[in-house]
Every structure is written in C-alpha cells, then in structure tokens.
Specification:
Layout: E1 4-9, H1 17-32, E2 36-41, H2 50-60, E3 65-69, H3 70-73, H4 77-85, E4 89-94, H5 106-120, E5 125-128, H6 131-141, E6 146-148, E7 166-170, H7 179-188, E8 207-211, H8 218-229, E9 236-240, H9 244-252, E10 256-259, H10 268-274, E11 280-283, H11 287-293, E12 307-310, H12 315-327, H13 329-343, H14 349-360
GO molecular function: glycosyltransferase activity
InterPro entries: Glyco_trans_1
Organism: Nesterenkonia aurantiaca
C-alpha cells in the first residue's frame, strides 16, 4: 500500500475544473515516479452522512501522508483532528472555500465556516489553486501559511472561430457560475443602444452556446433553459455537458469565452480558452480575473489583457461590453491578438504538479 494518498470525491457531478485538476496532477505525479494511491470516497460532500465520515476515517487511518480535496477535508474536522493526533501528515487542497459557494442560507454558510476553520486548523499544509482562494482563506480564518499551486493547461491548436461571432459559456449550470446573468445581458443586446448608431448600421450577428452539467441544481438549470428559449430563435443553445470531440468542436467555433461567475477560484476554462487563442470576458474580483491576466509577478504580466473583467452583477456593463465587442472588428482583433500572446506563456500541468508536491512536502 502506498504511504501517500490523495482523497478525492467520488460522487460529484462533472466535469468540473476541480476534478480535472485532481486528475491531472495525479497523472503527473505518477509520471514523475511518485507512488500515490487515489482514494475516491462516496458521499454528498460537503454535507456527508455519518457513514460517509466513517469511510473517510477508515482511509485516513491507513496512511501517514494524506492530501484531501477541500470539499472533503474542510467538511470533516473531527476526522482530520483524529488523524493528525495519530501522527498523520494532513494536507488540504482548497479549490473553493466552502462558504464561498453561492446560494447558501446564512445558517449553511455559518456551519460551513465553522467546519472549515476547525478542519484547516488540523492541517500540516494548506494549498489553494489560486491567489484568490488563498486571499479568501486569509481573510476568513487568518491563515498566513497558505501555498498556491495554480492549474496548468494543455497546448491546443488555435481556434478558427465562427463565420459570425460565437460566444461560449462553459461551466456548471449553477447560480455561482451565473449563466442567468449572462442571458440577461444578452437579452439587452436586442434593445436600442444608448447612443445613435450610424444610419443603416446592421445589428451585429452573433450566437451563443451554454455548455455544462446541469445536475447540481436542476431547478436553476430549468430556469436557464427557459431564459435561453426567450432569446431570438437560434441565437442561444443550451446543450448540457460537453466533452471529447464535441467539446473540441465547440472550442474551434468559439470567438469569445464568457464567464460571469459570482465567485471563481481560478477558472481553468479561461486558460483553456487562451491556449486556443480565444479571449474571455469574466467576472471581476474572482479568480477568473487572475487566470485572464496572469500572475502580476509572472511572465504574462507585461502583456495586454486578452479580454475584460466586469462586475458579474452589472448586466448593463456586460451588455455594453458585448455590444462593443460584437460591433467593433478592431476590438475583436485586439483581444484575439492579446490571447495569442498569452497562449505562448501559459503554465503546464507539470508546473502545477511540481508546485503542489513542493507545497505539501512529498
């Protein structure tokens, strides 16, 4: 049995950035020759049953060095405390601080805050997948020793784009990802702009695709489909989760990624877009903004921003920016050129795996 274990959730709806991160760093570690046992534990994390906790406690007792996905570790303070007291070296990988999830009641947020604070207090190492998440943990809990291991990205071919501008929302169809906000902004595009257009200027042509798993919040997903159906016929398609060749076709036809998340640890989909030379419009104040611009001290800092970051709750600002991008070919080219410049300087998954390994001292 491997002494190193990476405990991940077995039952989360996917695909998701967090699950992809876990899978890719584990694959890189094995390629490096690091023997790590992947343990997928069942349960409705971060709301486990007593039986789910017992399964986790059993696995924790079998290993001396354990890395836990934060959706599990931050929800199991007693189990982490017991394992640490027995001599296990516990590390927690925080993709998203539990109380940062949107749609929580005040009582739920408080319960998750208390749980996460207690759980992280038993951790030998705490690692976040973005500077945004690190700063959030510092503000919430006062943790100063939090490392960052940002995701990597695979190299990809440049996307040729569509004949008419194509927008892509790619992510879970949930309140936090905010596709309803995007649809509200798109609906405003059919309204007269706030300034006169040149005589005879045609309305910009565009289409949009909303792609992502819908199982996490079926009622919200139904509302998204209803709102999309109210758009002009054929403008917006809601297609559910996409993967493999279907996803690659989507990327090839995309001209702009739109990600109006209310909270986002990093937004791996942003760097996946940049890897294809696709710019992005993202929620300001979220980790997606970091993904778009790059580390202020990193190799991308000197490059022009390949898109823009806007308040995700300001639908008028999103509509105005989208209208400008759709109407101005020079702006579209400027953003695309910037995306291609960033493309050459993106991190790889080997960088991410090494950063995480260093942070948890494996």
């Amino acid at each position: 049995m491997a002494q190193l274990a990476f405990i991940v959730p077995a039952d989360l709806p996917g695909p998701s950035g967090g699950l992809t991160y876990n899978h890719r760093v584990l694959a890189q570690w094995r390629a490096m020759g690091l023997e790590v046992e992947e343990i997928a534990v069942p349960g409705a994390w971060p709301n486990p049953s007593p039986a789910d906790r017992q399964v986790l406690a059993h696995h924790l007792a079998q290993h001396r060095q354990v890395l836990l996905d934060g959706i599990i570790g931050s929800a199991a303070p007693q189990e982490l405390r017991t394992a640490a007291a027995s001599g296990a070296q516990i590390s927690v990988l925080v993709h998203l601080p539990l109380p940062a999830e949107s749609g929580l009641s005040p009582e739920e947020a408080q319960r998750l805050t208390l749980s996460e604070r207690a759980a992280l207090g038993s951790a030998h190492s705490i690692v976040c997948t973005s500077a945004w998440a690190r700063d959030d943990l510092r503000a919430r809990y006062g943790h100063d020793r939090v490392a960052v291991a940002e995701p990597g990205v695979d190299r990809a071919a440049l996307a040729p784009g569509g004949a008419a501008p194509r927008l892509l929302f790619l992510g879970a169809v949930t309140p936090r990802k905010n596709p309803l906000g995007l649809l509200g902004a798109l609906a405003q595009l059919s309204e007269p702009p706030g300034h006169p257009e040149p005589t005879g200027s045609p309305e910009p042509q565009w289409s949009a695709v909303i792609a992502g798993p819908e199982g996490q919040d079926p009622a919200y997903a139904a509302a998204v489909r209803a709102a999309a159906a109210e758009q002009p016929h054929g403008r917006v398609s809601v297609i559910g989760a996409a993967a493999g060749p279907q996803l690659e076709t989507l990327w090839a036809e995309t001209d702009l990624l739109v990600l109006p998340s209310l909270a986002e640890t990093y937004g791996m989909v942003v760097t996946e877009a940049l890897a294809r030379g696709i710019p992005a419009l993202v929620g300001a104040g979220t980790g997606a903004q970091d993904a778009l611009r790059g580390d202020p001290a990193g190799s991308r800092a000197e490059l022009p921003t390949p898109g823009a970051a806007l308040d995700p709750q300001d639908l008028r600002a999103w509509s105005t920016m989208l209208r400008a991008w759709l109407s101005d070919a020079s702006l579209r080219q400027q953003w695309r050129d910037a995306a291609q410049a960033h493309r050459a300087r993106l991190r790889t998954w080997s960088h991410a795996a090494q950063d995480l390994r260093t942070a948890i001292e494996w």
